[in-house]
Batch of 2 targets.
Target 1
Amino acid sequence: MQEKYLAFTGRPNAGKSSIIKEVVGLNIATGKRPGTTRRISKYPLSGDLVLVDMPGFGKMMGSSKRLENKINDQIIEFLESNAQNIVLAVSVLDRSTFLEVTWRLEKKGFISVDVEIVKFLADILGEFP
Ligand SMILES: Nc1nc2c(ncn2[C@@H]2O[C@H](COP(=O)(O)OP(=O)(O)OP(=O)(O)O)[C@@H](O)[C@H]2O)c(=O)[nH]1
Ligand SMILES: [Mg+2]
């Protein structure tokens, strides 16, 4: 049976695991520091639907640059190679930092990681029908 994915993405500490815990009722680790979820974690729901809790995309605390890059590469690889089977991708934002960080970077001509994630998802998954 081909798995179908409901994927949660976002920066480290955005609140991905907390939302999953609260809404789906899964007993998974959440934390105050970025970098709690270190592996792409799959949780079967019903039928062929599998919920995916991603590690945070971007900088995390207490990890080497090498591990950070490895995790970021794994996230991109997972999303790209499974794009056909992702039924829904939820991009979680931390409302206390999103606007400020995005505006500050935009003024300098950069895009925030949050915006980068959404653009990437739109690129690989396309727009809504
Ligand atoms: N989800 C959520 N978390 C909040 C909110 N306000 C504060 N927090 C805190 O923010 C932290 C989020 O932690 P996680 O849910 O582990 O975040 P995550 O995105 O899974 O983080 P990584 O696994 O490190 O990528 C927790 O300590 C929450 O208590 C909120 O409105 N929503
Ligand atoms: Mg997490």
Note: The chain has one domain: 4-125.
Target 2
Amino acid sequence: MSSKLKLRKIRLEDMLNNNIWDVDPRPHIILDTSKCRDCEYKPCIRLCPVGCYVSHGDEVLFSYEGCVECGTCRVICPKEAITWEYPRSGRGIHFRFS
Ligand code: SF4
Ligand code: SF4
């Protein structure tokens, strides 16, 4: 019997599809977009793992609904443009690893 461990590649999209969201109608992340225009590299666009930040010319469009609450944007924003808190109790993402 082979003792080789078989690794299965799982796409990020497939992992995320296992989760469910109970979106809080009150946004848990507030973005001060007036600060984004002068943000040179706009790291949130590249570093949010689920694409909540999208480039739109000089502007940044943001939607909080698909947020996986990793906190990355809160840490990397150089302009302190983000007011971040967890969704209200029981709301937001419910992780299901399978
Ligand atoms: S990193 Fe912060 S300031 Fe820069 S574009 Fe993103 S949210 Fe705006
Ligand atoms: S907390 Fe994470 S998933 Fe949510 S918007 Fe910020 S970077 Fe994206």
Note: The radius of gyration is 17 Å.
